[in-house]
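Quick one:
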Amino acid sequence: MRHLEKHKGHRTGWLRAAVLGANDGIVSTASLVLGVAATGADSQAILVAGMAGLVAGAMSMAAGEYVSVSSQADTEKADLARERAELANQPDHEHAELTSIYVERGLDENLAKQVASQLMEHDALGAHARDELGLSDALAAKPVQAALASAATFAAGALLPLLVAFLLPSRSLMWGVAGGSLVFLAGLGALAAQAGGSSMGIAAVRVTFWGALAMGLTAGVGALFGVTA
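Output:
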């Protein structure tokens, strides 16, 4: 009977981009709203600033993720091209290299040679990509996926404090946005931890702490340097 195990590693790429986008959307937009509100601006000005931050932030996240993950993808492609050339020109050396990897992992030399031979006969480039370079399809860089996930989740995260700001009266806007955003951040941290199979409590505390720090500093700057709009 085949034993099936459900691992979380295949979620690493999109989960990282999604959590980063949503967290940044909540923190940066809530901080912007609080900073503008601390200057004494009216509700309309606060919402306009928040919407501008949402659009700019989503586009910035998408561009940043696409560029950075594209660089990673380019590096992976270059490594694979180099490995492909070495397999074509130095197959014996590559076989010995793969053998030494398996010996270091605990196989005796004869068995390691047999494993290396069979894997290279089946898919030489795939074997070296996986065991020498540490590359796999599940963890491969996907620039478009990362960009779309970051932009969409940033926008979704940014909408939460904006919605709170829209619904609350001016007199309770700052405390409502700050408190609501901390709740949203705690929920995001717990949800991300659950998806990744890690501690929900630790993740929630971690994102809430840094979010509170960012919002507090931004509100302080707005109060210190702002003027009534």
